[in-house]
Amino acid sequence: MGRQPSRGSRGGGPAGFDKEMYKCRNEVERTINRLKHSRAAPTRYDNRAYVFHGTLTVASIRLWIRP
After folding, report:
1. Would you say residue 8 lies in a domain?
2. Does 3 reside within a domain?
3. What CA–CA distance (Å, rounded) separates 35 from 40?
4. Helices H, strands E: what count in the chain?
5. Which residues in 31-58 are b (16+ Cβ under 10 Å) and which e?
6. Does any domain span residue 30?
7. Residue ranges of region Disordered (predicted)?
8. How many domains does one find in the chain?
9. Is 34 helix (H, G, I), strand (E, B) or coil?
10. Residue 8 and residue 62: Cα distance in Å, rounded?
């Protein structure tokens, strides 16, 4: 088995890699992690979906206001 030739200036990213899509995905993942680490969202076990949705909405607004 021989060594694969280096790609040089042709790039080394995988086929089908979209840089802009990755940036958006990374931002969404970081936002979800910040929501998980907020105090209100992961400790709530509400019986009603609208109460839990409200809790997540308030946590999201707090993240949006604070940089």
Report:
1. no
2. no
3. 9
4. 2, 0
5. eeeebeebeebeeeeeeeeeeeeebeee
6. yes
7. 1-20
8. 1
9. helix
10. 46
Helix 19-37 crosses helix 49-65 at what angle (to 10 degrees)?
110
Q: What is the domain range of residue 34?
A: 19-65
- Looking at the chain, list the stretches that DSSP marks H as alpha helix, in order from N- to C-terminal side: 19-37, 49-65
Which tokens in the block code for residue 7?
């790609």
Per-residue pLDDT of 5-56, as tens digits, reads: 555 556 666 667 788 888 999 998 998 888 888 776 666 677 788 888 888 8
Closest CA to 46 of 32, 37, 33, 57: 57
Looking at residue 22, its amino acid is Y
Which residues, in sequence order, are CB contacts of 46 under 8 Å at separation 6+? 52, 55
Q: How many CB atoms lie within 10 A of CB 59?
A: 20
Instruction: Select from 43, 48, 19, 47 the least CA-distant residue to 59.
Output: 43
Q: Which two tokens mark 2?
A: 């021989």
